Amino acid sequence: MEYPDSMVKQLKIIKWLLIFITASVFIAASSVAFVALQSINLVESSLADSSCDEKSFRDKVSNLVDEGKLEEAIKLANERIKSYPNDEDGYWYRGKAYYLQKKWQTAIDDFNKTEELVPSWKEQYTEPYRAAAQSKLANR
After folding, report:
1. 126 contacts 116 by C-beta, under 8 angstroms
2. What is the CATH code for 53-138?
3. Fewer CB within 10 Å, N- or C-terminus of the chain?
Protein backbone atom coordinates (compact mmCIF):
# COMPACT_ATOMS: atom_id res chain seq x y z
CA MET A 1 0.00 0.00 0.00
CA GLU A 2 1.36 3.38 -1.04
CA TYR A 3 0.90 6.41 1.14
CA PRO A 4 0.34 9.82 -0.34
CA ASP A 5 3.38 12.13 -0.35
CA SER A 6 1.74 14.55 2.05
CA MET A 7 1.23 11.79 4.64
CA VAL A 8 4.86 10.65 4.28
CA LYS A 9 6.01 14.25 4.81
CA GLN A 10 3.81 14.54 7.90
CA LEU A 11 5.17 11.26 9.29
CA LYS A 12 8.76 12.47 8.73
CA ILE A 13 7.94 15.74 10.51
CA ILE A 14 6.39 13.81 13.42
CA LYS A 15 9.45 11.54 13.57
CA TRP A 16 11.80 14.54 13.74
CA LEU A 17 9.57 16.28 16.30
CA LEU A 18 9.69 13.16 18.49
CA ILE A 19 13.49 13.03 18.14
CA PHE A 20 13.70 16.74 19.03
CA ILE A 21 11.38 16.32 22.06
CA THR A 22 13.32 13.29 23.28
CA ALA A 23 16.62 15.13 22.94
CA SER A 24 15.16 18.19 24.71
CA VAL A 25 13.91 16.06 27.60
CA PHE A 26 17.30 14.37 27.88
CA ILE A 27 19.10 17.72 27.91
CA ALA A 28 16.67 19.14 30.48
CA ALA A 29 17.06 16.10 32.74
CA SER A 30 20.84 16.30 32.44
CA SER A 31 20.73 19.99 33.34
CA VAL A 32 18.56 19.32 36.39
CA ALA A 33 20.90 16.54 37.50
CA PHE A 34 23.93 18.80 37.03
CA VAL A 35 22.33 21.61 39.05
CA ALA A 36 21.34 19.15 41.78
CA LEU A 37 24.89 17.79 42.00
CA GLN A 38 26.33 21.30 42.14
CA SER A 39 23.89 22.17 44.95
CA ILE A 40 24.90 19.07 46.89
CA ASN A 41 28.58 19.92 46.43
CA LEU A 42 27.93 23.48 47.59
CA VAL A 43 26.12 22.27 50.72
CA GLU A 44 28.86 19.73 51.46
CA SER A 45 31.60 22.31 51.05
CA SER A 46 29.79 24.80 53.28
CA LEU A 47 29.34 22.11 55.94
CA ALA A 48 32.97 21.14 55.66
CA ASP A 49 33.95 24.78 55.92
CA SER A 50 31.85 25.37 59.03
CA SER A 51 33.30 22.47 60.96
CA CYS A 52 36.67 22.55 59.16
CA ASP A 53 39.27 19.89 58.97
CA GLU A 54 41.12 19.41 62.22
CA LYS A 55 44.09 21.68 61.51
CA SER A 56 42.12 24.55 60.01
CA PHE A 57 39.61 24.33 62.88
CA ARG A 58 42.46 24.66 65.40
CA ASP A 59 43.94 27.58 63.46
CA LYS A 60 40.62 29.41 63.17
CA VAL A 61 39.42 28.90 66.73
CA SER A 62 42.86 29.61 68.20
CA ASN A 63 43.03 32.91 66.30
CA LEU A 64 39.55 33.85 67.49
CA VAL A 65 40.50 33.15 71.11
CA ASP A 66 43.78 35.06 70.74
CA GLU A 67 41.92 38.02 69.22
CA GLY A 68 39.43 38.03 72.10
CA LYS A 69 36.54 37.05 69.81
CA LEU A 70 35.31 34.61 72.41
CA GLU A 71 31.67 34.37 71.33
CA GLU A 72 32.76 33.55 67.77
CA ALA A 73 35.22 30.97 69.11
CA ILE A 74 32.48 29.37 71.22
CA LYS A 75 30.13 29.31 68.24
CA LEU A 76 32.77 27.66 66.03
CA ALA A 77 33.61 25.15 68.79
CA ASN A 78 29.91 24.35 69.21
CA GLU A 79 29.62 23.65 65.48
CA ARG A 80 32.68 21.42 65.68
CA ILE A 81 31.32 19.52 68.69
CA LYS A 82 27.96 19.12 66.97
CA SER A 83 29.68 17.60 63.92
CA TYR A 84 32.28 15.67 65.94
CA PRO A 85 30.95 14.96 69.46
CA ASN A 86 34.23 13.41 70.62
CA ASP A 87 36.56 16.10 69.29
CA GLU A 88 38.92 17.13 72.07
CA ASP A 89 39.88 20.36 70.32
CA GLY A 90 36.28 21.55 70.27
CA TYR A 91 35.94 21.09 74.01
CA TRP A 92 39.44 22.43 74.77
CA TYR A 93 39.01 25.71 72.87
CA ARG A 94 35.44 26.20 74.05
CA GLY A 95 36.64 25.64 77.63
CA LYS A 96 39.45 28.14 77.14
CA ALA A 97 37.01 30.72 75.75
CA TYR A 98 34.64 30.17 78.69
CA TYR A 99 37.60 30.48 81.05
CA LEU A 100 38.53 33.83 79.52
CA GLN A 101 34.89 34.91 79.89
CA LYS A 102 35.15 33.97 83.58
CA LYS A 103 32.46 31.32 83.19
CA TRP A 104 34.36 29.09 85.56
CA GLN A 105 32.06 26.10 85.96
CA THR A 106 31.31 25.86 82.24
CA ALA A 107 35.04 26.02 81.51
CA ILE A 108 35.72 23.31 84.12
CA ASP A 109 33.09 21.08 82.50
CA ASP A 110 34.75 21.45 79.10
CA PHE A 111 38.23 20.81 80.51
CA ASN A 112 36.89 17.68 82.23
CA LYS A 113 35.42 16.47 78.93
CA THR A 114 38.68 17.22 77.13
CA GLU A 115 40.61 15.22 79.69
CA GLU A 116 38.11 12.38 79.47
CA LEU A 117 38.72 12.23 75.71
CA VAL A 118 42.51 12.65 75.95
CA PRO A 119 43.84 11.80 79.43
CA SER A 120 47.39 12.68 78.39
CA TRP A 121 46.38 16.35 78.16
CA LYS A 122 45.76 16.57 81.90
CA GLU A 123 49.11 17.83 83.14
CA GLN A 124 49.92 20.28 80.37
CA TYR A 125 46.53 21.49 79.13
CA THR A 126 43.52 20.84 81.32
CA GLU A 127 44.73 20.78 84.91
CA PRO A 128 46.29 24.28 85.02
CA TYR A 129 43.10 25.91 83.72
CA ARG A 130 40.80 23.70 85.76
CA ALA A 131 42.75 24.40 88.98
CA ALA A 132 42.69 28.14 88.33
CA ALA A 133 38.96 28.08 87.58
CA GLN A 134 38.26 26.03 90.70
CA SER A 135 40.27 28.53 92.74
CA LYS A 136 38.22 31.41 91.28
CA LEU A 137 35.00 29.57 92.14
CA ALA A 138 36.18 28.93 95.71
CA ASN A 139 37.07 32.61 96.21
CA ARG A 140 33.63 33.93 95.33
Report:
1. no
2. 1.25.40.10
3. N
